[in-house]
Amino acid sequence: MQEMGVRKVIGAGRKQLVWQLVGEALFPALLATMFALLCTVLTLPVLNQLTNREVGIDFLQQHNLFPLFALLGIGAGLLASIYPAVQMTRQNSALEYITENGSSRYRLRNVLVVLQFAITIPLMVASLVIHKQ
Question: What is the Cα–Cα distance from 11 to 27, expressed in whole angstroms?
């Protein structure tokens, strides 16, 4: 958030800030897509052994898969970054962000996150206990 404030003071426009944030989110999305593709290729033999079937992806025969995966990564990056980028650049100043940070809306969000973890952890432990029995 500090970087946004500095860029605004220097004179960066809202559109420029949004595109910067979107661009910063696209790189991890593309990396995650490539990592998922690599994991899929590496785990296909294990899947084939477990299911006694032959499932495969032949990238040399199907050239249209690479652009499809690239578009998937770009789409995921755009979907994940547009709304936060617009919301972050909508703030008028860092002072406005600081005064809103202590409001009840943020406290409710924090309580809900803690509650979610408090429910999830016992459920995971119960699942592991049931699985071991």
Answer: 25
> Which stretches of the chain are assigned E, i.e. beta strand?
none
Is residue 21 within 8 Å of residue 76, measured between CB atoms? no
Return the structure tokens found at 119. 């429910």
Query: Of all residues in the chain, what percent carry a pLDDT higher than 90?
Result: 8
Give the integer Cα–Cα distance in Å for 7 and 4.
Answer: 5
Q: Cα separation of 77 and 17, whole Å? A: 16
Neighbours of 128 (CB within 10 A): 9
Q: For 62-95, write each residue's pLDDT tens digit.
A: 778 888 888 988 998 888 888 887 777 776 655 5
Dmax (CA) of the chain: 63
Contacts of 27 (CB under 8 A, 6+ apart): 77
Which residues are within 8 A (CB) of 122 and not within 5 positions of it... i.e. 6 or more apart? none
**Residue in the block written with tokens 């990396």:** 31
Q: What is the pTM of this model?
A: 0.56
